Amino acid sequence: MLSRFFLKRPVFAWVIAIIIMGAGALAIYNLPVSQYPPIAPPSIYVQAFYPGASAETVENSVTQIIEQKMTGLDRMIYLSATSDSSGSSRIELTFEPGTDPDLAWAKVQNKLQLAMASLPEVVQRQGVAVGKATRNYLMIVGLISEDGSMDGNDLRDYAQSNLEKVLARVPGVGEVENFGTQYAMRIWLNPDKLTEYGLTIEDVIRAVKAYNVEVSAGQFGGTPAVEGQRLNASIVVQSLLKTPEEFASIPLRVNQDGSIVRIKDIGRTELGTEFYDVQAFYNGKPTAGLAIRMASGANALSTADAVKKKLEEMSRYFPPGMKVVYPYDT
Q: In what side-by-side order are the strands of the sheet with 88-95?
């Protein structure tokens, strides 16, 4: 009955078929990605940093201790770890597809607390990060200075200060890894001068901690105030040091004859970067690199588009000559 109706009206049948095909073509762009089954297994990473340690020291005192505690985790398939000479330790834990990433993150966090007491004190002060991200990079974002007004240290400091936290909040981004560090005041010590003046590195560290500190001494005109008091201001007796000259003038010792031994007498100070282990270049130009890892269960295309859209939005506030490039984009 129904087939006979369309056989006698072929034009109407063709119109219905074309409408169905057109609706299907339009629906391709609006298919909900959430309906696709999770294929990639979720992974959790644990990252720690041991400044000044060799790869072997990091492996023995950080990586192995954390690995030993990561046992008995439900639905964990395998784990892998890396330790490098820059003091970085990273452990990747991969779970079965379909595992709730939030639940897996909480379990790894609880296991990590059992290992924290056994880690070196300096590692505990630096902090141990636990996050949800895929193992492979989704894309790498680079910053270059087209006019050469900014060097690599300037670009890497800008990337970490202004871009890293913003990109980490983009939906679908699990981790933003910065290939570089921020500005840091570098104090280069002369071992011969230290021996000559009878000083040690610990003496220098204590002096820097004592003088590079902001101290509040109360308020001027604070309550209860006298009648007619209209001024209220905080009193700061010492603020954080900012320039290499200020750090060079930090006193280390006062001798019996009244002379003062300062940092500039046993070394030199300069504004540099915290670590020099990574030097990135793009087409021969110094660059700052930010590697993007996806969050577990995120869609790669929508995450990459969201990252590019956010960078395009922020590019309006870039310093003159700074440009965004994409050396690696999957």
A: 76-83, 88-95, 43-49, 129-132
